[in-house]
Amino acid sequence: MAAKPVKVSQLNSYIRRVLQTDPLLRNISVTGEISNIKYHDSGHVYFTMKDDGGRVNCFLPRDVLPHIRYELTDGMEIVAYGYISVYERGGYYSLNIRDIDVEGQGSLSIAYEKLREKLAGEGLFSEEHKKPIPGFPEKIAVVTSPTGAAVRDIIKIITSRNDFTDILIYPVLVQGPGAAPEIAAALDDINKKFPETDTVILGRGGGSAEELWAFNEEIVARSIFDSAIPVISAVGHETDFTIADFAADARAETPSAAAVMAVPDTSELKTYVKSVAEGMNDILLSHIRRGEEALGYLDPSAFCRTVTGKTDIMSMMAENLKKDIDTLIASKMLAMRERIKVCRNTLENLSPQNIMKKGYCVLKDENGRPVADTCALSQDQTVTIVMAGGEADSKIIEIRRRHDE
Fold first, then answer.
1. Are the C-beta atoms of 54 and 16 separated by less than 8 Å?
2. What is the pLDDT of residues 267-289, one digit of tens each?
3. Helix 104-121 / helix 218-226 crossing angle, nearest 10 deg
4. Run of H or E residues at 267
5. Residues contacting 131, CB < 8 A, separation 6+
6. Is the dihedral of CA 257, 261, 266, 268 positive or negative?
7. What SS3 state is found at 81?
8. Residue 384 burial (CB < 10 Å; 0-12/13-18/19+)?
9. Strand, coil or helix: what is 383?
10. CA-CA distance, 142 to 78, in Å (whole number)?
């Protein structure tokens, strides 16, 4: 005979107690692909994990979400750590998540791109927020592993290039689940306790994508962005690009390159300063020589010699100029006299008196007007004959006109 019937809520409560008392289900890890992820307004995250043979509902509480290292999205292969819980009212079970790891290179790339797009949209990578790296730092903080090759390379290069800058080593984990919070805390701590620091070098040597992942976490990017001290990111090799590189004020291809970027070479600076000083000395000596020459002109005897010499030269020039002017005036006068003589001869040759002396005369009528043609004469007309020696009156007796052919 069947057991006494139970209510639906009693059944769900019983199943919940059974599942929650199973030691395997209280601490279980599940592998699958994220599907239908939803970020609820309450801050909780709901999604489905699936594989080729099935699926399970998952619940990520809002108080656990800040500790998840990856930006979750559909299609990611993950390992979810948590416990099985039953929602009595709905009658279904879910995997309540305590932590998540990403499986495979493809899922890491998805998480990387998702976070990069999110932070870029918020302006964390904008050039307008980048701070300039100081050219002459007095103090540099190095945030990295205290035992790696990166810290040794950075110290070696800085000390070989610069005998002025102090180095503060701030040791942190650079890989693993606890590395990102430790790196972020180190940046915040340096800003609070060592605000006089000029530059922070954040980095580590090369490694796999999983080993470098701490520098791809949101908490690190936001700490870099919030830092009042300029940050140089130097993670991995030249081909490695992390979220920290985009958030930092400057990126160096390697930790060694970051050390070169962070401090000037004081030996080169000394050589440069020496060359500038020598150039300034040459300029100063040149000014002194010109000053001495100027003072020499102010010496009375030298001044007299100079004035006397200049006076002699000016007198010679004036004498030569006078001679040139006299020669020019004489030449002009001679030319003018010759021209006047020619004009006088021309006028004399054209004078009526001279012409009449040659036997010519002028005939005038009763009104004293010259008679130019026989047509103006009439018989018995009285005319006046003007000659070189005087005048004579005459009467026209006969008019003989010349007829041209």
1. no
2. 877 777 888 888 888 888 888 88
3. 30
4. helix 266-297
5. 230, 249
6. positive
7. strand
8. middle
9. strand
10. 33
Kindly report the length of the chain.
405
CA distance 359 to 347: 19
225, two tokens: 């962005």
Helices (H), 129-239: 149-161, 179-193, 218-226
Q: So what's the pLDDT on residue 403?
A: 66
Query: Which amino acid is it at 404?
Result: D
350 vs 346, 353, 356, CA distance in Å? 6, 9, 11
Determine which helix (DSSP H) or strand (DSSP E) holds 21, and give its type and residue range. Answer: helix 8-21
pLDDT-derived band of residue 54, with 50, 70 and 90 as boundaries?
confident
Please name every residue paired with 18 in a beta bridge, in sequence order, or none if there are none. none
Cα gap 186→171, rounded to integer Å: 8
Single-letter amino acid, residue 308 = T
Residue whose entry in the numeric block shows the structure tokens 């041209």 = 404
Sign of CA dihedral 277, 278, 279, 281: positive
- The whole-angstrom separation of Cα 140 and Cα 167 is 5
Q: Give the global pTM.
A: 0.56
CA pair distance 340, 334, nearest whole angstrom = 10
Give CA–CA dist 6/353, Å, rounded. 172
Q: Check: CB of residue 244 under 8 Å from CB of residue 272.
A: no
Q: Nearest-CA neighbor of 141 among 207, 214, 227, 81?
A: 227
Banded pLDDT at 405 (limits 50, 70, 90): very low
Contacts of 348 (CB under 8 A, 6+ apart): 354
Q: Kindly report the CA angle at 198 between 273 and 194, in degrees rounded to 5? A: 140
